[in-house]
From TrEMBL, chain A:
PROSITE patterns: ABC_TM1
Family to which this protein belongs: Belongs to the binding-protein-dependent transport system permease family.
Transmembrane stretches, start-end: 41-62, 112-138, 150-167, 173-191, 230-253, 282-303
UniProt-annotated location(s): Cell membrane
Entry membrane topology: Multi-pass membrane protein
Pfam families assigned: BPD_transp_1, OppC_N
One example of a Gene Ontology biological process annotation: transmembrane transport
Organism encoding this protein: Paractinoplanes tereljensis
Upper taxonomic lineage: Bacteria, Bacillati, Actinomycetota, Actinomycetes, Micromonosporales
Name of protein: ABC transporter permease
GO CC term (a single one): plasma membrane
Automatic annotation (TrEMBL), chain B:
NCBIfam families: oligo_HPY
GO cellular component terms listed in the entry, alphabetical order: plasma membrane
Name of this protein: Dipeptide/oligopeptide/nickel ABC transporter ATP-binding protein
Key words, A-Z: ATP-binding, Cell membrane, Membrane, Nucleotide-binding, Transport
Protein topology in the membrane: Peripheral membrane protein
Any one GO biological process: peptide transport
Family: Belongs to the ABC transporter superfamily.
Keyword Cell membrane recorded: yes
Source species of the chain: Paractinoplanes tereljensis
Length: 313, 323, 335
């Protein structure tokens, strides 16, 4: 008898898995097709790809070491003069006599690093909290939600400023963590909301009716379906993260390491300080930030649009 | 002279990057003053698109409308948008399928009725509201004074559809187009709404174009029936004729699909094979051929004409065969 | 309605207390804490101890916490470590400047955002629409402090259209009544001062408005497009209503619902943006106060009060938005 019931259960579970999987696969394939037809998505994707290639191959692309100070540049350096383009230094010098072009190129790496880590940490913590809240419900859910309420009581950049200010001194990590923490409540609520919606959906109800174990339902049925919303949010978060990091640098709360070549830092510190002497020091990192933020925003929104059931045919 | 004379109406949809689709493919029919005409067919056959095309309510982009829609002496398709706006709501009223989504959620019901009177009959707001109260009363909405100030979500489904009827008939139009007016309602309410429509139309002498997939609605209401399939009229007949002796296999199939009280218990309901996705293009024969029980070689090859202006079939159901 | 408001107010208080508690304990857990920040690391143990006692940091943490809560409730935030003045005074002085700036920015964002978003939707897919989409995308991707410098450089250096910084020209002695310079000028009939203050306000307000403006345009556009697809718009057209009536009475009213929520959320972005904008234009409001309280050694009493203030403003604005929703959307009113 037991075996019969068990076999039956397993078969039906397979069926549920297959149908939800089939839905998933065709949804993703369908969305992928729409994405490739969408010029907005292509522009966003190309911008990000370009950014990734530069970041990965920075040592091959950059003409010089980004922290080396060149005598031919420092020689002409004064408070109100920073050398422009010369032979061998296509974008001229930075305020310390370093090759600005190389710093821009290596900047892709550091910016990617800050953006990816801040997004990932925020995502992981948020998803964890949201999954716990959504899966357990009840008191745990209430406590986690009140916690996110508290975090959301401050506008995001102000929360980041507060966090950095509360650390006794800032490093690159305080910036990354502050920007990451700001996004935790957003991810947490997103995942929880999506899981609650899932909890009432037919395939989860069916699984529950069959007595599938709770952690199996959460891990195999609810989480995968909830993650699509998280992916979209993560793409959009990346853009916000590098903008927030730049803002923190501008407020003097950024990474104090003067060797670090990161676009936000270059723009927020030197770019602004020497704006009247040599505005290119601001223009280039600003342009780079705008293009990358634009790339991620375009891609994120296209993915959301592509996954929107309203646009399915 | 007919009140409405639709001649060779076609609507072609074309979205960027897709093949053009003819949702309505050369439809012609007429409506005499005071007459009730049915447009019948399954979803996707083009009946709703036809009604929207007559009203000029299709989205401006992505479609091409050709043919003629003569209302009395004017071809509505040739009117400028502003001229058409003068006629809509005054000469032709329309009611829609889903009464909840068809009413504006944030505007009190009274204003939604009154605004059409303000627009076409030059009433002041106060006069229009007073008249609106009478109209709500006439469509059987209890306590109309209170309802005037209420919002659509505070009304029941049947009440909302009554309100929409009041709006459509406010200016005593000569033609009313009803697009599946009972589909979204409970069965008990459906009958009430149909009775109300019939009463109002009969009393005021308004002509009615009834768009439906429900043959029961047709049986109770329509003088003449146009059966649409894949954007074309496939059969046209008076109500009694159609029900007594359908000639087109599609009409026949539709009629046989209706559950009957006098059928054998446990007997299977008739069904039409396949779905509209099996259709072949009209240019290659009869679109219905792949689903037809009476298909013969002659059905495939070239477009079947509307024989005698009433039947589009090469191998029709013989007269008097059906029990 | 009253029950909804009172429940939301209780929630507000609970959230703010929780936030303050977190900030309090975090601050006390830092090595050194405010004493180090105030004296620097080379101070003698004696001075250090003296100050510790004076500030009450020698008492048990829960005593400190109790006193802290009492002070918060009575509005006593102690004195600024940096200047020695009472925190409430320091903040009170900077408050009108930021509010003036924020109000100007939100007026710009709403006043331009809704019409532009509506126009873009109306011309969907055409040049105006595409241009709007691109500009708003750049608007949300640009670091606004950079935009501030850019505008400042173009409009105050290259062409002297606007004053580069400050709230009012020196020498224009305006009488301080409310702290809102534009308003003060009007109240005291010093119209030249009012105009001058307004002139100073333009660039910072535009800079601060950038992100909310871009977002309001995008939301309005999307929302109008959604509403145009609704059945009740088709009904309105079927009634033969004039184009203008359909747009005004039926489209706009419904399309504004999501925009109102967005405006509430954007006030938050505005508070954060003020910190950046004020630094660019040397504005001397709360944003400047935050920056100063952090960079010149952490001025914790001031910071605490500022965080509290920001949270309260943000939550209250969103509460107000939720309530105003009830007046636009009858479906909410009934519940």
């Amino acid at each position: 008898m037991a075996t019969l019931a068990e076999n039956k259960r397993r078969r039906i579970e397979e069926l549920i898995a297959r149908t939800s999987e089939a839905g998933g696969v065709s949804l993703f394939r369908d969305a992928g097709r729409r994405l490739l037809r969408n010029p907005t998505a292509i522009v966003g994707g190309v911008l990000i790809l370009l950014f990734l290639i530069i970041a990965i191959f920075a040592p091959l692309v950059a003409p010089h070491d980004p922290v080396q100070r060149f005598p031919e540049l420092t020689r002409d350096l004064t408070v109100d003069h920073i050398p422009g383009p010369t032979a061998g230094h296509p974008l001229g010098s930075d305020p310390l006599g370093r090759d600005f072009a190389s710093r821009m190129i290596y900047g892709a790496r550091q910016t990617l690093f800050v953006g990816v880590l801040a997004t990932l940490i925020g995502l992981l913590l948020g998803v964890l909290l949201g999954a716990i809240a959504g899966a357990l419900g009840g008191r745990v859910d209430a406590i986690i939600m009140r916690l996110t309420d508290v975090m959301l009581a401050l506008p995001s950049l102000l929360l980041a400023i507060t966090l950095v200010a509360l650390a006794s001194q800032s490093t690159q990590w305080t910036v990354i963590i502050a920007v990451a923490v700001v996004n935790v409540p957003i991810f947490a609520r997103l995942l929880r909301g999506s899981m609650l919606a899932q909890r009432e959906s037919d395939h989860v109800l069916a699984a529950r009716a069959l007595g599938v174990k709770r952690h199996d339902i959460v891990l195999r049925h609810m989480l995968p379906n909830s993650l699509t919303a998280v992916i979209v949010q993560a793409t959009l978060t990346f853009a916000v993260a590098i903008l927030d990091a730049a803002a923190l640098s501008f407020l003097g709360l950024g990474d104090p390491d003067i060797n670090r070549a990161e676009w936000g830092l270059m723009l927020g510190v030197d770019g602004v300080r020497y704006f009247e002497v040599r505005p290119e020091l601001a223009y280039f990192p600003a342009l780079a930030i705008i293009l990358v933020a634009l790339g991620f925003t375009l891609l994120g929104e296209s993915i959301r649009e592509a996954l929107d059931p309203k646009n399915r045919r | 002279m007919p009140l409405l004379d639709v001649r060779d109406l076609s609507v072609v949809f074309q979205r960027r990057g897709t093949r053009p689709v003819a949702a309505v493919d050369g439809v012609s029919f007429t409506v005499e003053p005071g007459q009730t005409v049915g447009l019948v067919g399954e979803s996707g056959c083009g009946k709703s698109v036809t009604s929207l095309a007559i009203m000029g309510l299709l989205p401006r982009r992505g479609n091409t409308v050709t043919g003629e829609v003569r209302f009395e002496d004017t071809d509505l398709l040739k009117l400028r948008p502003a001229e058409l706006r003068d006629r809509r709501g005054r000469d032709i009223g329309m009611i829609f399928q889903d009464p909840l989504s068809s009413l504006n959620p944030v505007i009190p019901l009274g204003l939604q009725v009154a605004e059409v009177l303000e627009r076409h009959q030059g009433r002041t707001r106060r006069e229009a509201l007073r008249e609106a109260r009478g109209l709500l009363d006439a469509v059987g909405i209890p306590d109309p004074s209170r309802r005037l100030k209420e919002f659509p979500h505070q009304l029941s489904g049947g009440m909302r559809q009554r309100a929409l009827i009041a709006i459509a008939l406010a200016c005593k139009p000569r033609l009313l187009i009803a697009d599946e007016p009972t589909t979204a309602l409970d069965v008990t309410i459906q009958a009430q709404i149909l009775t109300l429509l019939k009463e109002l139309v009969d009393n005021s002498g308004t002509a009615l174009v009834m768009i439906t997939h429900d043959l029961g609605v047709v049986a109770g209401l329509c003088d003449t029936v146009n059966v649409l399939y894949a954007g074309k009229v496939v059969e046209r007949a008076g109500r009694h004729h159609l029900f007594a002796a359908p000639r087109h296999p599609y009409t026949d199939g539709l009629l046989q699909s209706v559950p009957r009280l006098d059928a054998d218990r446990g007997g299977r309901l008739h069904q039409i094979r396949g779905s509209v996705s099996d259709n072949i293009p009209w240019s290659e024969g009869c679109a219905f051929a792949p689903r037809c029980d009476r298909v013969i070689d002659d059905c495939i090859g070239e477009t079947v004409p509307l024989l005698g202006g009433a039947l589009r079939c090469t191998n029709p159901v013989p007269k008097g065969v059906r029990v | 309605m009253v029950r909804v408001i009172s429940r939301r107010l209780i929630q507000l208080v609970a959230t703010v207390v929780a936030l303050m508690t977190l900030v309090f304990f975090w601050l006390r857990s830092l090595p050194g804490g405010p004493v180090d920040a105030l004296l620097g690391e080379r101070a003698t143990p004696q001075t250090r101890e003296l100050l510790t006692r004076a500030l009450g940091y020698d008492q048990p943490i829960w005593v400190q916490y109790g006193r802290f809560l009492k002070n918060v409730v009575t509005g006593n935030f102690g004195n600024s470590i940096r200047t020695g003045e009472p925190v409430t005074e320091v903040i009170g002085r900077a408050f009108p400047a930021t509010i003036e700036l924020a109000i100007a920015a939100i007026i710009i964002a709403i006043g331009l955002g809704i019409p532009l978003g509506y126009l873009a939707a109306k011309h969907r897919g055409r040049l105006l629409d595409n241009a709007t989409i691109i500009v708003t995308l750049v608007g949300i991707s640009i670091p606004i402090f950079f935009l501030g410098y850019l505008l400042k450089d173009w409009l105050t250096q290259d062409i002297h259209l606007f004053p580069p910084s400050g709230r009012i020209s020196t020498g224009l002695g305006n009488t301080d009544v409310t702290g809102f310079f534009v308003l003060d000028g009007l109240l005291t009939r010093e119209l030249d001062a009012s105009a001058d203050a307004l002139w100073h306000l333009v660039l910072p307000a535009f800079t601060l408005a950038t992100i909310p403006l871009a977002i309001i345009i995008r939301i309005t556009r999307a929302s109008v497009l959604d509403v145009l697809d609704e059945d009740y718009i088709r009904t309105a057209d079927a009634k033969g209503l004039r184009h203008a009536t359909v747009r005004k009475r039926h489209v706009l009213r419904n399309a504004l619902l999501p925009v109102v929520t967005t405006i509430g959320l954007q006030t938050g972005a505005l508070l954060a943006g003020a910190v950046l904008t004020e630094k660019v234009y040397n504005w001397g409001g709360l944003g400047t106060l935050i920056t100063d309280s952090i960079s010149g050694g952490r001025d914790y009493p001031v910071l605490q009060a500022l965080i509290l203030l920001a949270a309260i403003v943000f939550i209250v604005v969103n509460l107000a938005v939720d309530l105003s929703y009830a007046f636009i959307d009858p479906r909410v009113r009934v519940k």
